[in-house]
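User:
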Amino acid sequence: MIPTVNAKLILSILLALCTVFASQSKADDGVICQYRAYLGSYDTPGRASGVTVMGTTAYVADSSSGLQIIDLSDPAAPAFIGSYDTPDSANDVIVVGTTAYIADDLSGLQIIDVSNPAAPALLGSYDTPDCALGVIVAGTIAYVANGSSGLYFIDVSNPAAPELLGSYDTPGYAYGVTVVGTTAYVADDDSGLQIIDVSDPTAPVFLGSCDTPDRAFDVTVVGTTAYIADDSSGLQIIDVSDSTAPAFLGFYNTPDRAFGVTVVGTTAYIADRVSGLQIVDISDSTAPEFIGSYNTPGRAINVTIVGSTAYIPDDISVQIIDVSDPASSPLLSSYNTPSVALNVTVVGTTAYIADGTSGIQIIDVSDPTAPVFLGSYDTPDRAFDVTVVGTTAYVADSYSGLLIIDVNDPAAPVFLGLYNTPDRATGVTVVGTTAYVADGDSGLQIIDVSDPTAPAFLGSHDTPSLALNVTVIDTIAYVADLVSGLQIIDVSDPAAPAFLGSHDTPSVALNVTVVGTTAYVADFDSLQIIDVNDPTSPTFIGSYNTTDRAFGVTVVGTTAYVANDSSGLQIIDVSDSTAPAFLGFYNTPDRAFGVTVVGTTAYVADGDSGLQIIDVSDCPTCPADFTNDGVVNFFDVSAFLSAFGSSDPIADFTGDGHFNFFDVSAFLIAFSDGCL
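Assistant: Predicted structure:
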């Protein structure tokens, strides 16, 4: 019963509103919308490499930490239930009834009773000769993918005394296995797919094979089609209707290295290492198409799908992701540059990429979902950084110094001038007619570019370490100076720049940006926030430990965007500089070196994967969205009434500890506002 309020009256009011209000507009919460799909995660003690889900319980093969058993009844807050520390490294797990079977590397097959998941107990084991990497159970037989020893067949009808039935020594290194009827399909590393008749497990017979382009790590079979996770060759699709002559059907080249694959209906879910979960439409096996992707913090190794939820072991954790709408990925597009994208700047609808040995690449991003090549200029050395003023690009080109290029016609950029700095130019900023170059051992170099065809030396300041990046505000230059941290220099007289102050960051300063009187330093393994109101005495404010190496940083409003090496784009709330807080991330395919943000779009220089264009607009904030689907409608009303009737604190909209008409009134207002 709903307390203290007439339930029928409330229901009639709410139902009347249901047909009027629904909203999906944006709010300023700083969270990438895809992040809403992340239901939860659980950081296991070891390296999560395999997972099986039964009901609301996850069984995780957690390498040196053995079997971890996790309660998923509330996916937003997974809870530890129990564990069993296997003798070696748990690589894979399958659960049948109340028994878990673990491929335990050099300790072979471990059989665990999980009838009481809080206290799992060993039932038996079978020590296979090599490395047990994958396991599947069919009937009373466990099939173990056993590395260089191939496939092992073990009778587990008496789990206390498992017995070897037979084996088949595949030509490669058996990583994964699946069994359909009396046929076993083995992902056999360099030997691709091996197909074996196991109708008599004491005398298995070779049927056929298909040598995939790279290294077959995992296999699943649906009907007469096999799907192979084939390392850097992505998803390989093979017709196995004739087991003696399997035939190639099609492929999908994932961004990174495909380690695991699961197929549900006409959709393939691929664990693609640093590119996380890739989702592919395989309704046409000859032409699979990308649907969407979700990025995991670590390296996605395997994937299990239950309903519309994906469970992904990613080395450091198990990620729980709602895949009901895979097309909602924030990745707008990417553009694969010829070399290694190290930095990017955007002017209007044009992106300029410092692309290492390929110089600068110029890309039209007027339609961010379909970037178009405009032109390029192959600089003499290695382009580390680029800034553009008007129609002129200034490139920090390593040992060639400062290169100046006319980009008025981006299809045909024209060389204007060069200033060969003393050391290695890695960063550049331009204010008016003056260029400031971070020049390694030679510190800050200041160059007059009023005549770009004849740039002229103005002055320099030799910083204590290696000057890697520079930004200038008014007449003050801020230099990221590797082991010497942040160096602050008065450049009001460029002929005689003067040291003002410094702040020695804890690691190595790689990049710096300044907003107002606050400096944000990408300091290798953290973001350092420094008060520079008094440049002679900069003061530490706060820091945020990034998941990888922070190479670049840009700040928009109260949000910092960090190019975080193999962890991609990290998004951090810096509204309270003393306590910066994680907002979201997007794990780019390669190594994020630089980032710039224009409006709600982030442009990431992502090493070998070129330019990544990411929608960083906010998710809807809907206080009345009890079902958390981005829309307020009848289902939210029903959920509210249920919570209100059971005095669930979530329905206490006024936060006063009481459940009464004022909570209903507050809900009505939130409902009418929709998603803000």
